[in-house]
Amino acid sequence: MAKKSSMEKNERRRRLVAQYADKRAALKEIANDTKQPPELRFQARMKLAELPRNSSKTRVRNRCELTGRSRGYYRKLRVCRNQLRELASQGLIPGMVKSSW
Q1: Which of 89, 92, 65, 93 is nearest to 79 (CA)?
Q2: Model confidence at 4, in pLDDT bands (50, 70, 90)?
Q3: Which helix (H) or strand (E) holds 79?
Q4: Are 64 and 58 in contact (CB under 8 A)?
């Protein structure tokens, strides 16, 4: 299981992303609009840089809901490969069976 601090840090990042999403989108719209004057676009970029780093969506790490593991993550089920296999073996995932030949 992953360290609790890593999981909590990631949760804080998710909250920051949600909090600043509208502001970031508005500033990015201005910064990327080539019809705007360069000074206005530069100001928008500077304001974007002043926002917290962890408010960027790319800073969030996908982690398993059950263990917090960050590697081998299945987005559709929101679990890591180890837990996916365990849940499938127990028959808790509909339509998924462990193969044997």
Answers
A1: 65
A2: very high
A3: strand 79-80
A4: no
**Average pLDDT of the residues in 37-41:** 96
Tell the burial category of 30 from Cβ atoms under 10 Å away from its Cβ (0-12, 13-18, 19+).
Answer: middle
Helices (H), 1-101: 4-32, 38-50, 81-90
* 74 membership: H or E segment, kind and range: strand 73-74
- Could you give the CA distance from residue 10 to residue 19 in angstroms, rounded to a whole number? 14
- Counting residues of the chain whose pLDDT is more than 90, the rounded percentage is 89
Joined together, the tokens standing for residue 12 give: 């804080």
For 70-92, the pLDDT digits (tens) are: 999 999 999 999 999 999 989 99
Q: How far apart are CA 96 and CA 101, in angstroms?
A: 16
Domains of the chain as residue ranges with CATH: 1-61 (1.10.287.1480), 64-101 (no CATH)
